[in-house]
Amino acid sequence: MAEESKSKQGKPKGDRMSSLSDTLLIRILSFLPSKTSVQTSILSPRWRNLWKHLSVLNLSDEDFIQFNSEPFKNFRRFFYFVNSIIFVLKLSQVQNVRLSCTKSFTGDTMCRASFNAWMISVIGPSIKELDLTLFTLDGYCCRLPVNLSVCTNLVSLSLKGALCFELSDAKSSSLPSLKKLRLDISPPINEPSLSVFYRSISPMTVASLNDFFHACPCLETLDLYFSLEDYDRICVPALCLPFSLKRLKIVVNNSDKTQVLLLDNLSISDAGKLQKASLYASNASPSTLSKLLHALSGIKHININKGLTLFT
């Protein structure tokens, strides 16, 4: 009996992952960086092709940075990996794309051509969530394709860094499913005369932004990031908020601190005028807060909570 009990205790319990369905395993892989997901193909024959069924791409050049390596060589490794992924996957099945390139990108011809090709490949009718972060080593700013503004199934859009979303004709935009929009875009240093959708906002670009809002009838969350200089120049009272908007977050970046203004629980009239809101302010200077309150001078009810740091 003792030997039998000892034998049972020493018997391996098996691999719990193997008992999971392929659908669940693919779901788990979708939360990992794409590089890690691809590496699981060596685990066993069953895992060899699981990553090819992913509907999520999570790509970052940080996964390909080698110490003391030149930026171009780092980007080249990233370039080969992304191209191989795009070549193998059925892009019609890709619904969520997160692309971050912050350590190796320059205005080099190869970098520019690669980024443009990737955007053309992934931006299409099947895309539902798009999260792009791009910081360049030489100040170059990448222009996003026009077809981004007509993705009818896009639900969430986040743009951060050296990206230029040009809307020469915002009225032609159509984003009927967009619910979440975050814009944190650097000014185009290499093309100062370019008409830019966001940053260095003037009354003309605010008008374009208002036209753009008409193309987003379901927009619920809007995050706008400004430098202090840009915020001081914007014409906030001219901004006509979408009727569906529930939360507006304004972040003003300064050299010494980040100011955050959050308007939550919004109630907006059919004319796009704010009627009711809760205001949360963190590190906001009197001038920054005053400018926003002046823009909200027609509001009927506002609940102010100043000094919170929860939203920084």
Structure description:
- With about 300 residues, this protein is an alpha/beta fold.
- It is built from 8 helices and 12 strands.
- Strands 1-2-3-5-7-8-9-10-11-12 form a 10-stranded mixed sheet. Strands 4-6 form a two-stranded parallel ribbon.
- It is globular and about 65 Å long.
How are the elements arranged and paired?
Blueprint: H1 2-10, H2 22-29, H3 34-39, E1 56-60, H4 71-88, E2 96-105, H5 109-122, E3 129-136, E4 142-143, E5 156-161, E6 163-164, E7 180-185, H6 203-214, E8 221-227, H7 228-233, E9 247-253, E10 258-268, E11 274-282, H8 286-295, E12 301-306
Parallel strand pairs: 1-2, 2-3, 3-5, 4-6, 5-7, 7-8, 8-9, 11-12
Antiparallel strand pairs: 9-10, 10-11
Briefly note the structural class of the backbone.
alpha/beta
Work out the strand percent. Answer: 25-35%
> How many DSSP-defined strands?
12
Poorly predicted runs: 188-204, 307-312
**Radius of gyration, CA atoms, in whole angstroms:** 24 Å
H and E order: HHHEHEHEEEEEHEHEEEHE
Instruction: Report the sheet with the most strands, covering strand number, pairing sense and barrel closure.
Output: 10 strands, mixed
Kindly report how far apart the N and C termini lie: 64 Å
Strand ordering within the main sheet: 1-2-3-5-7-8-9-10-11-12
Which shape, going by the Cα principal axes?
A: globular
Integer average pLDDT: 78
In DSSP terms, counting alpha (H) and pi (I) runs of 4 or more, how many helices? 8
* Amount of helix: 25-40%
